[in-house]
Design goal:
With about 290 residues, this protein is α/β, with parallel strands linked by helices. It has an 8-stranded parallel sheet with strand order 1-2-5-6-8-10-11-12. Strands 3-4 form a two-stranded antiparallel ribbon. Helices cover about 30% and strands about 15% of the residues. A hairpin with a 5-residue loop joins strand 3 and strand 4. It has 11 helices and 12 strands.
Length: about 290
C-alpha cells in the first residue's frame, strides 16, 4: 500500500487531468465561512480529535482567506464552470447562534469579484450570491459588474440588507437571456426598509424571464403595469413586500404561481375577484389565502 503522500499526489493528478475537470467542476462554491473553518481544521494533529475552544480561537484568529488563491483556484477550472456560488463573505451564523463577522478575515473585494466573473464570463449560466452585502451593497456600480455575463440564465442575490434603487437595478436589464431572477431581502430591520422601492422599466427587456422572486422588499409598494409585457413570466414571488397595489398581476395571464405571503395586500383580493376565471386570478387568490375560483 503506498504511503499517504503518494495517494494524495495520485488523486491530485486525477483531479487535475483535463478529461476530469469538465465532470468534476461544472459548479464551484466559494463559501468564505466554510473555507476559513476548513483551514482552521487543516493541521494533522486535529484530524482525529476536536481542538479545544482556546486552540480553535487562536487558530481562527491567525487564519485569513487570500483573494489571490481563490482567483487562481477558479481560473484553473474556468472552462468547465457553468455555475458559481459566492456565500457568506460578510459573515455567518455559528452553531451557538452568534454572528461571526468575516470583514477582517479575507481581502476579497468587488474588484476581485469582477476579475473572478471575467474568468468565467463566456460560459457562466448560473450565479448565486448569498450573504455578500459587503461585496454587492454598492448600488449601481456593483450590479453593473453582474450585468456583463452574456450567457447568464439564473441570477440569485439573496439576503440583501441594503437599499436598491431602480437606477441600480436597471443595470440587470442587460442580461436579456435571464430565465430566473431572485433578489431577496432580509426581514425589515427596525424602521429601516431594505431592498428595492421600485422596479425599473428597463426590465421590459427580460423577455425570457420565467421566474421572478422579490421577497422581503418592504419599500416596494406597487407592482408596475409592464409586468404583463413579460411574455414568459410564470412564477412571481413578492412575499413580504410592501406592495399594497398588485392590480398589475391581473394582466399577467401566463402566471402559474403567485406568492403574496405576508405582503401588505390591502384591497388586493378584490382585484382578484374582478378577474374570476383568469389564470392569474386563480393563482393570486390561492396565494392570498382565499379560495380559488371554480
Amino acid at each position: 500500500r503506498p504511503p499517504p503522500p503518494q495517494v494524495c499526489s495520485r488523486w491530485q493528478a486525477v483531479l487535475d487531468h483535463p478529461h476530469s475537470r469538465p465532470a468534476l467542476w461544472p459548479e464551484v462554491v466559494v463559501d468564505f465561512g466554510h473555507e476559513l473553518i476548513t483551514a482552521v481544521h487543516t493541521p494533522i494533529r486535529w484530524s482525529d480529535r476536536r481542538p479545544s475552544d482556546d486552540d480553535f480561537r487562536d487558530a481562527f484568529a491567525a487564519t485569513k482567506l487570500s483573494a489571490a488563491r481563490v482567483l487562481a483556484f477558479v481560473r484553473a477550472r474556468a472552462p468547465s464552470v457553468r455555475a458559481l456560488v459566492l456565500a457568506n463573505s460578510e459573515g455567518y451564523w455559528s452553531d451557538d447562534g452568534d454572528f461571526v463577522n468575516l470583514a477582517t478575515k479575507h481581502n476579497f473585494s468587488l474588484g476581485h469579484v469582477g476579475l473572478l466573473l471575467e474568468s468565467v464570463r463566456p460560459t457562466l449560466a448560473s450565479l448565486v450570491l448569498s450573504h455578500c452585502n459587503d461585496l454587492f451593497g454598492g448600488g449601481a456600480g456593483a450590479l453593473a459588474t453582474l450585468a456583463c455575463l452574456p450567457a447568464l440564465r439564473v441570477l440569485r442575490v439573496e439576503d440583501v440588507h441594503c437599499r436598491l434603487d431602480a437606477g441600480a437595478l436597471a443595470e440587470l436589464a442587460a442580461l436579456t437571456g435571464l430565465e430566473e431572477l431572485a433578489l431577496t431581502a432580509e426581514e425589515q430591520m427596525g424602521a429601516w426598509a431594505v431592498g428595492a422601492d421600485a422596479l425599473p422599466p428597463a426590465w421590459r427587456a427580460l423577455t425570457r424571464l420565467r421566474r421572478l422572486e422579490l421577497r422581503g422588499h418592504a419599500a416596494l409598494t406597487a407592482l408596475p403595469d409592464w409586468l404583463a409585457e413579460l411574455p414568459a413570466l410564470e412564477h412571481l414571488d413578492v412575499a413580504g413586500c410592501g406592495a399594497a397595489d398588485v392590480s398589475a398581476v391581473s394582466r399577467c395571464v401566463g402566471l402559474r404561481v403567485l406568492s403574496l405571503q405576508s405582503a401588505r395586500l390591502g384591497d388586493a383580493v378584490a382585484v382578484v375577484e374582478e378577474e374570476e376565471g383568469g389564470g392569474a386570478a386563480s393563482a393570486a387568490a390561492v396565494a392570498a389565502g382565499a379560495p380559488a375560483p371554480a
